[in-house]
């Protein structure tokens, strides 16, 4: 019996849906509206990008801008995850503003929504109430088909009526003026990331034709591919060891998968992360490449961030080697147990 199957057998007498989940009201309707608009633009733009590539071709400018914006978005999601969700380190308002801009420009939802969903995921990982588990649907009903569950985790969960209540999971974000500014103005930052920056670079290097190619290929298509890469963490990295490997025995199906790890700059080390959820650096072996974690350690070395959290063995050693002071004590479990979700401005 797998870890997830053994946990599922213990869930039979529990209510399917825990607190902090909404099924009606303006927040639910807003979620669907944002999802329809975002996916229509990204999917439509991706189809147009492929048609354009076969019809007009793409050159070094489009490829270079695609690579640059993909890297920027991947790092942005790393900051979204390790700073805004887990508070793996501390920083001042200038760096927090930069992190918020990069996180929002990844075009994966507002800071408020992303943080709320991810904390709910940790609190109920692969149990009823998990926002994007491959083992339970949005209503807490178990999947009998692994393929259906993986489809749900890869993106189908966005269309679940059950919606995370930010007032339950993200009070610190609601009280953070910087995070809330970027949440309210998210569509402007999406446009900057997917349209204005790629288009401006394309136009400056090759005129209107290259501008169109950059918008389609490095803007819209990149946003869709980036979303799918991040979603592999929800699906492949919760496969209970079917793909990848499990370094730690956790009470869920989390898995480390190295291809996903490379695509997401370290986020695919998901079993490590669920064992030490607040760690800024989550590699525990030389072949576990955690680029986002190394960036955070580098920023710490430069004095741009501080109080870097390191509970796991490799993370503690990396922090010590970087001369970043004593690592914090271990935090094991979900996103809230032992966590110090510091007030805005820290």
Automatic annotation (TrEMBL):
One of its GO terms (biological process) is fatty acid metabolic process. Residues 63-278 form the Fatty acid desaturase domain. Its main location: membrane. InterPro entries: Acyl-CoA_DS, FA_desaturase_dom. GO terms for cellular component: membrane. It comes from Bradyrhizobium yuanmingense. GO terms for molecular function: oxidoreductase activity, acting on paired donors, with oxidation of a pair of donors resulting in the reduction of molecular oxygen to two molecules of water. Pfam families: FA_desaturase. Keywords: Fatty acid metabolism, Iron, Lipid metabolism, Membrane, Oxidoreductase, Transmembrane, Transmembrane helix. Belongs to the fatty acid desaturase type 2 family. It comes from the Bacteria. It is a multi-pass membrane protein. The chain crosses the membrane at residues 36-58, 64-85, 187-205, 212-233. This is Stearoyl-CoA desaturase (Delta-9 desaturase). It is found in: Membrane.
């Amino acid at each position: 019996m797998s870890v997830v199957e053994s946990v599922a057998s213990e869930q039979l007498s529990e209510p399917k849906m825990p607190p902090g989940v909404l099924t009606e009201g303006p927040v639910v309707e807003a979620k669907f509206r944002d999802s329809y608009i975002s996916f229509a633009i990204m999917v439509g733009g991706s189809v147009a990008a492929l048609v354009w590539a076969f019809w007009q071709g793409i050159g070094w400018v489009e490829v270079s801008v695609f690579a640059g914006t993909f890297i920027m978005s991947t790092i942005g999601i790393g900051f979204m995850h390790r700073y805004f969700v887990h508070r793996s380190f501390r920083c001042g308002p200038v760096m927090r503003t930069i992190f918020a801009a990069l996180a929002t420009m990844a075009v994966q939802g507002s800071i408020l929504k992303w943080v709320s969903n991810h904390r709910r995921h940790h609190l109920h990982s692969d149990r009823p109430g998990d926002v994007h588990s491959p083992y339970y649907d949005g209503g807490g009903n178990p999947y009998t088909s692994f393929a259906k569950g993986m489809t749900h985790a890869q993106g189908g969960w966005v269309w679940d009526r059950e919606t995370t209540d930010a007032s339950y999971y993200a009070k610190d974000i609601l009280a953070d003026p910087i995070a809330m500014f970027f949440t309210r103005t998210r569509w402007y930052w999406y446009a900057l990331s997917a349209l204005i920056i790629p288009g401006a670079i394309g136009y400056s290097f090759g005129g209107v034709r290259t501008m169109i190619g950059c918008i389609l290929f490095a803007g819209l298509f990149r946003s869709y591919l980036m979303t799918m890469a991040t979603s592999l963490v929800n699906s492949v990295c919760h496969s209970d060891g079917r793909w990848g490997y499990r370094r730690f025995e956790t009470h869920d199906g989390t898995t480390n998968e190295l291809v996903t790890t490379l695509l997401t700059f370290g986020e695919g080390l998901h079993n490590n992360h669920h064992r030490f959820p607040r760690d800024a650096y989550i590699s525990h072996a030389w072949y576990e490449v955690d680029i986002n974690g190394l960036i955070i350690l580098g920023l710490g070395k430069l004095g741009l961030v501080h109080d870097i959290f390191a509970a796991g063995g490799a993370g503690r050693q990396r922090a010590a080697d970087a001369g970043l002071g004593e690592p914090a004590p271990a935090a094991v479990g979900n996103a809230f147990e032992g966590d110090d979700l510091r007030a805005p401005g820290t």
